[in-house]
Design brief:
Elements (H helix, E strand, L loop, with lengths): L1 H22 L7 H15 L2 H16 L6 H17 L6 H27 L8 H16 L1
Helix pairs in contact: 1-3, 2-3, 2-4, 2-5, 2-6, 4-5, 5-6
C-alpha cells in the first residue's frame, strides 16, 4: 500500500508539476536535479532513475514549448564529458550532487541560448527567476 502511494505520488508529480510551472512561473524547473537522477540511473542505480526523470523532462519540454530532448542531450554531454572528473569527490555525495546539478543546468541553458541564437527565437528569458530556479535546484540536490 505504501509503495502504491509513493508510485502514484511520483506519477502525479511528473504529470502535473510541468503544467503548474507553465501557469505559475515562480515554481522552479528542477532540470538539473532530474538530469542528476538520470546520471545516477546510467551509473547503475536502476531503470527508475532513468525513466521517471526522463518522462518529467519530456513533459516539461512539451508544456513549456522548449526544444524537444534538449535536456537529454545536456545530461548526456555532462555524463560523457564532466561526470568522470567530478567523481574524485565520491566521499562527498552532496558535493557531487551540487556540482552535477549546477553543471547540467548551465549546459542546458547554454544549449538553449545557442538554440535561440541559431534559430532567432526566444525560448527562455534570462532574468532573476532563472537564477532562483537554479538555486532551488541546487538546494534540492543537496538536501535529497
Amino acid at each position: 500500500m505504501k509503495r502504491l502511494f509513493w508510485t502514484l505520488g511520483i506519477l502525479f508529480f511528473i504529470l502535473l508539476y510541468p503544467m503548474l510551472i507553465s501557469i505559475y512561473v515562480t515554481l522552479p524547473l528542477f532540470i538539473g536535479y532530474a538530469g542528476y537522477l538520470i546520471v545516477q540511473g546510467i551509473e547503475g542505480r536502476g531503470w527508475r532513475y532513468v525513466l521517471l526523470p526522463l518522462l518529467y523532462l519530456l513533459n516539461l519540454e512539451i508544456n513549456l514549448s522548449l526544444p524537444l530532448l534538449a535536456t537529454l542531450f545536456a545530461v548526456l554531454i555532462y555524463d560523457l564529458l564532466l561526470y568522470p572528473s567530478v567523481l574524485f569527490l565520491k566521499r562527498c555525495r552532496p558535493c557531487v550532487a551540487l556540482i552535477s546539478v549546477v553543471a547540467i543546468d548551465l549546459i542546458y541553458f547554454v544549449f538553449l541560448l545557442g538554440y535561440d541564437f541559431v534559430f532567432s527565437t526566444v525560448s527562455i528569458e534570462v532574468n532573476s527567476l532563472l537564477l532562483y530556479s537554479l538555486a532551488m535546484d541546487a538546494i534540492v540536490a543537496v538536501l535529497l
